[in-house]
Specification:
Helix content: under 10%
Order of helices and strands: EEEEHEEEEHEEEE
Number of helices: 2
């Protein structure tokens, strides 16, 4: 690619890449990875340098050159993002749309009111049975710095 480098910011975060976006013939062009990948939800290779890029509920087919470079501003606008270019600072800013929060949908198959649970019924723990005289502990334990084992009786 030839032309001056362009800084690309998506939602205020600068996209870092080994191959930078550049200004060519009045268009900001950039490699599909990572620039188009950052604004898309899905990218499908169709062959012959064509890619189907999906994002924001829209799908666009673009043609990339031999290095996988596309016109990034046009692609972002086609996917519904807001795009602005600052010529003085050579910065392309892309703002992804924010989807509003919606109330969750309730399942229509659940009837209102009390309904049966499938948890097992808890049974009370049986009381211990005392049958005889208690016996002291006969487990070997470590004792002292020499690490010898002592049996307690």
């Amino acid at each position: 690619m030839t032309g001056p480098p362009v800084t690309v910011a998506i939602d205020g975060a600068i996209v870092a890449s080994e191959q930078s976006a550049q200004l060519r013939n009045g268009l900001v062009v950039a490699p599909i990875v990572p620039f188009a990948q950052a604004i898309a939800t899905r990218i499908d290779a169709l062959g012959d340098g064509r890619f189907r890029i999906t994002g924001g509920g829209r799908s666009v087919v673009v043609r990339a050159d031999a290095r996988g470079v596309v016109a990034l501003g046009r692609l972002a606008r086609a996917l519904g993002e807001r795009v602005s270019y600052n010529a003085r600072h050579r910065t392309l800013a892309i703002e992804l749309p924010v989807e509003p929060l919606r109330a969750p949908r309730f399942w229509p198959s659940i009837p209102p009111g009390p309904y049966a649970t499938f948890a097992p019924v808890a049974e009370p723990t049986p009381r211990p049975v005392i049958d005889g005289i208690p016996v002291p502990r006969r487990t070997p334990i470590e004792a002292g710095p020499e690490r010898s084992i002592v049996l307690l009786r």
